[in-house]
Amino acid sequence: MGYAPSELALVPFVSVENMMRIVHATGIERFLAELARYIEEDFRRWELFDKTPRVASHSREGVIELMPTSDGEAYGFKYVNGHPKNTREGRQTVTAFGVMAEVDTGYPVLITEMTILTALRTAAMSALAARHLAPDGARTMALIGNGAQSEFQALAFKALVGVDRLRLYDIDRAASRRCARNLAGRGLDITLCGGPQEAVEGADIITTVTADKQYATILTDNMVGPGIHINAVGGDCPGKTELHRDILMRSSIFVEYPPQTRVEGEIQQLAADHPVTELWRVITGGTPGRSARDEITLFDSVGFAVEDFSALRYMRALLSGLPYFDKLDLLADPDDPRDLFGMLMRAQPQAA
Length: 352
Known about the structure:
The chain is of the alpha/beta class. The protein folds into 2 domains: 7-116 and 306-346, ornithine cyclodeaminase, domain 1 (2-Layer Sandwich); 121-303, NAD(P)-binding Rossmann-like Domain (Rossmann fold, 3-Layer(aba) Sandwich). The longest helix is centred in the middle third of the chain and has 19 residues, at 115-133. The protein has helices at residues 16-26, 28-44, 115-133, 150-160, 173-183, 196-200, 245-250, 258-264, 279-283, 305-319, 340-346, and strands at 10-14, 55-58, 63-70, 74-82, 96-102, 108-113, 140-144, 165-169, 189-192, 205-208, 215-219, 229-232, 241-243, 252-255, 277-278, 297-300, 326-329. Helix 2 crosses helix 3 (115-133), helix 2 crosses helix 10 (305-319) and helix 3 (115-133) packs across helix 4 (150-160). The protein starts with 9 loop residues before the first strand and ends in a 6-residue tail after the last helix. It contains 11 helices and 17 strands. The protein has an 8-stranded parallel beta sheet.
């Protein structure tokens, strides 16, 4: 065949194997801290970005979504699913991949796995929000729901906020034991708890990160005392919540993008005009975060495309100094841009 791909045809691709190599070469806590810095940089220029709620296809079993955005120079999107039942079949609840492209040419410049990267991005976003909203000196976190996201959350809060005491609870005790094993030796004092009420005792921060796709009440109003910061991660699609409505009514609520969060987040339980604060306004200093010692702050986290854009941007920067990627022959690049057919014909196998 008369074909050899040109450099223009080749797009950097980060596989799962190479993503793991990159994280280990960087160090996971450093990776989380640097990723959070990229997210914070992009939140500071929030108004530059195209913003739209993710394009979602819902089914009884889960959801498949596309999450696009652009800052005018680069375009990024993530494909992601959420299927809680998958763990019963030995599959991940969430899988993802992402693409970044140049706006001026439309050419992709990066394709990467984002199952691992989304777990890291979600944790980095949680800890970044807590750095702006949690009480000063917060060191103890209740982590309710000890599935695939739990260790990432714990390490992000350690790296960015200074949390060094964890109180773990999951309805599956084995999940809590696994989480504790995975975090052993990482400078965390870990307590396994028998229920959510026990887990929140003495906590400065409560992170809920459960997976069931249903209206649930992981936290009831009596569990949440004054001065707590709540990081609500698990409620991330219509019909899926974790907090009792009364908690929301007592909290100062911070969100990423209200048109998306009002449909998917904890605040789907509230009136459409219930006041919330966009987190980017806090990060830029235009709006205060925590304003009183006894205030309950709630980050109603559902994940937004700008955060994935930041993750793609960070990954591209890392690749400039690391060899852990492949080049995919993805883009047809004929010698004459108008002669795509000729390129195809010249690649026809010759008869023996």
